[in-house]
Amino acid sequence: MAAQRGGRQVRAEQGHPGRGLGGFLTILSHKAESAGRELIAVNPANTSRTCSRCGHCPKENRVTQAGFRCTACGHTAHADVNAAVNILGAGPALRDAARAAWREAAPFRSGGVTPGKNAPLSTSTAAVS
Ligand SMILES: [Zn+2]
């Protein structure tokens, strides 16, 4: 597919390796890393209808395209703001779950466990109780 841009004929960017959403996420990941930031991919399913205050998630929470009102706790917000708060919270939750799973799996990885560094969670839980 070709298109005109600036008087020159250029090929459409769709379908080229390294372009599109995957290419964008790769570039965004590199930019985030160079800025000392963390990029976490989050599943957006139900983020616009889940209450960012109490977690209640019926479709009736979404009263209009822009309006959000929780049928359980009464929380109201712009639907996009509510969804953004959910996404913001989902990233760190995913990261923490992945770290916990990594620590839990330490005894099963080759190379064993380094005490005090990647010891399984059950060890640190037992030390607390
Ligand atoms: Zn709620």
Topology overview:
Elements: E1 2-5, E2 8-11, H1 20-34, E3 67-69, E4 76-78, H2 79-104, H3 121-128
Antiparallel strand pairs: 1-2, 3-4
The protein binds zinc ion.
Zinc ion is lined by residues 51, 53-54, 56, 70, 72-73, 75.
Task: Please give a handful of descriptors for the protein shown.
single chain, 129 residues, alpha+beta, two-stranded antiparallel ribbon, 4 strands, extended, disordered C terminus, binds zinc ion
Please tell me about this protein's structure.
By secondary structure, the protein is an alpha+beta fold. It folds into two domains: 1-39, no CATH class; 41-122, no CATH class. 38% of the residues lie in helices and 11% in strands. The chain has three helices and four strands; from the N terminus they run E-E-H-E-E-H-H. It has helices at 20-34, 79-104, 121-128, and strands spanning 2-5, 8-11, 67-69, 76-78.
Topology as a string of helices (H) and strands (E): EEHEEHH
Q: What's the arrangement of strands in the largest beta sheet?
A: 1-2
Shape: extended
Q: Give the total of domains.
A: 2
Helical segment tally? 3
Q: Percent range for helical residues? A: 25-40%
Mean pLDDT: 80
